[in-house]
Design goal:
By secondary structure, the chain is mainly α. It is built from 17 helices and no strands.
Amino acid sequence: MPNTSTTPLAKGAWYTLVILTLVYVSNSIDRTAMSILIEPVKAEFKLSDSQLGLLTGLAFGLTYALTGLPMGWLIDRVNRTRLLATVVAVWSLCTAICGFAQNYPALVMARLAVGASESAAAPTAMSMIADLFPKNRRSTAMGVFWTSTAFGTAISLVLGGVIAANYGWRTAFFVAGAPGLILAILIILTVREPVRERDIGQDDQTPAPSLLQTMRFVCANPTVFHAFVGIGLASLAMSGVPVWAASFLVRTQGFTLPQAGLMAGLGVGLFGALGSFLGGPAGDAVVRRWGVQALPAAPMVACVLACVSGLIFALGSSLMVVALGFIVFEIVSRGFTAPAYAILVTGVEPRMRGVVVSAVQAVTNLVGYGVGPLVVGVVSDRVGGTNSLKVGIAAVMIFSLWSGLHFLAAWLAARRSERFVDGATA
């Protein structure tokens, strides 16, 4: 069995990683554009917080989940660069279409379309990165990739707030959709399809496992199963803060919309990106020090710290305390992602990666980004009053702690798993 520490990088690996990261920056901009536009959209269409939670969450997450598994099936079988270029172009156009909505149902329909087209992005990138980078460098590569969510969210919050304040929320959607169209062309012209990694006993003609075979494999592999469930639970908590952060600052700290967008955007862009970047090397450092089987310890610790810092953000009595909670939350919640996904792509066979990552992305977007913001909104409506949003955000932090327990179980299971042995293939 080859030693992954001596495995050379595939040709063009770093360039492809940069393009994939830029693609997901565009993805994150288009996904989170609605978050900074909550207040002007609410005012124009006279919406409740529950309706806004549906718009920012479930309207996106539902179609993301429904199309995720079919997209994963395609990813494991077709040319991934062409597929990626196609979906980037589609979600960019659909984001721009949000700006033409004349009522709430039309805006919901446009968001449904964005969710459906974005479902292929992360699993395609994860599949390609796993083929481009060996196991001992995979978490770092994924850490670089996942900085995209912080940068994209920050750009969306900062520029979205400024554009909305000066030119209206519709113009903000038009601007958000433009970069993806350029990236789609760049992918077609410059990105090569990576050679797919082979698992033990397989050759290039070995067909990809069926969806049923893949899900059976996940359920029979305790490490992968607990990581799968843990990622889904963590997303419930980790989506609640960034989606509602700007509105939280407007309502509890008296910020204007541009001020709230600037503070939330800088927090996500600086400290979220820092967390994403450090999360990958931290995961690889754990692997070097204690072996691949210890990798689940990294997201486990991140979940506990995210719960504590999220509560500090929600319940802080002063702006300084709120800001500190937000900064720590962004660092640890973004740092969670790279090692968590590295567990998935390491623990499954190479030709299962597209389906497995699509499945977990479907769960995180339906249960996490779909239900998470909705839970915050519903709790806020039920509690009522000026501090209701504080209670709503605090309520979803329990899911972060629950997630940490699953990663503890994944850690214990990995110690007995053949796929988490140093030097194993895949």
